Amino acid sequence: MAKQNVAEQFVDLLVRAGVRRLYGVVGDSLNPVVDAVRRTPGLDWVHVKHEETAAFAAGAEAQITGRLAACAGSCGPGNLHLINGLYDAHRSMAPVLALASHIPSSEIGLGFFQETHPERLFDECSHYNEMISHPRQMPRLVQTAIQHAIGQSGVSVVTLPGDIAAAPAPEKAVEHALVTSRPSVRPGDTEIEKLAHMIDEADRITLFCGSGTAGAHAEVMAFAERVKSPIGHALRGKEWIQYDNPYDVGMSGLLGYGAAYEATHECDLLLLLGTDFPYNAFLPDDVRIAQVDIRPERLGRRSKLDLAVWGDVRETLTCLTPRVRARTDRRFLDKMLKKHADALEGVVRAYTRKVDKHVPIHPEYVAAVLDELAADDAIFTVDTGMCNVWAARYLTPNGRRRVIGSFSHGSMANALPQAIGAQFTDRDRQVVSVSGDGGLAMLMGDLLTLVQYDLPVKVIVFNNSSLGMVELEMMVAGLPAYGTDNHPTDFAAIARAAGAYGVRVEKPRQLAGALKDAFRHRGPAVVDVVTDRNALSIPPRISADMVTGFALSASKMVLDGGVGRMARMARANLRNVPRP
Q: Which is deepest, 45, 253, 509, 540, by most CB within 10 Å?
């Protein structure tokens, strides 16, 4: 058997850890690794057009599969381009291993061509960030990086100079068993008993849920039924908790709707379950709060806690629910359900006037039709900005759909790259990139990646020729919109020129047919929908001093607009309220 070099050993470790693809752009310092991938069964090189896309795609794959994913960039500018996507993966708790190849080891520190210092640059967006400066550090350093990424749910970065990648690997190197999955964490009995006592003392309990409730839907519903509590959620909790939920009172935060804000402020005990909700202005400061989270460093960093519980939400509720007293008093729950339904009805009435005839097309109408026509197990990737609004208000979760975006990092241009990573996990599953024209323009070159690999991603462009969310922020702050215009662009024509299916929609009656045709098309497709940049109305009670950046200091409603099928869900839940 021929002796391995360091690059081959690195690639073998990726395969052992379950990595299926390495996203990146080739380059000289990276060539030994790319050649090792070429000769290794079970691992494919995915040639994207920008390294930022590589990192976003890897992060999306990790979020969809729960497995380690990987990306790579060549020395200097190549690996620098990874950084934004790695920030997003890290803040999304996606296990990603990034390879930052480096200049020749003998030239480090001498101002060599393309020299940077990756071992410094990636510190803030990784749990582990080290350089292999000698072949003898393999394979232990890479194994350590893998276990950091998986064990702490985030990014590890390995810097590898090109000459060391091509060097012979050490003989008889020790290879340890790899950690490839994370355990559940159960709180101690003392914490469970304290939490049970707080719950039994409270009269009005509200649950506020985040992405940490993934896999705990049944347990959350059983607990809510036992203590008769309304359930609100953050944006990242929507896909896990809103469906089949008779206790749903909507979402709080910048894009909030329904009665979630009231439910969190009118209770006397608020339980934060698996959420690192960043907008503490929306959280109460005059009620008792207990928080349950798998990440202990997140406990109490958004609000003052009366009890912090370190544990997995599912395991915690499994232990907790039998220990709290069952209740029959639904008055608080029913009051919040009615407020929720009334709030959504008011929003619907404000929005639905001749929407199917309005030109330019209402973006709310596009989102509603997309929600109706998309597959029941579709994966939606959502651009930051106004597309977040449409996802929050219109994409209906059902336990099988997934909705991912740059919800914690807030980067532009994430939707198309994330769709690439999502589609590679299953070519037969419908993947929809909900893209703004600004976001798509930023990394539009990777439309060519869809064509090159014949990935059947459907890119739905909400094309209002503006940076809509930024324009809205300026308006609410009392500033004239400036620097937010995009040149009107026919993205469908660009798609066709690149070899994809492309159709432009300018009238509402064309929309459903265009979406159906795109979904039937077997390859990549772009549906470019010209939407009304003035569709959103600003509630008159929002004043300039309420907005600082992205945070509100008061008021539960930030953006007015439709809410899709959620109004029907709220009415259905209200009909189920027992009558005296």
A: 253
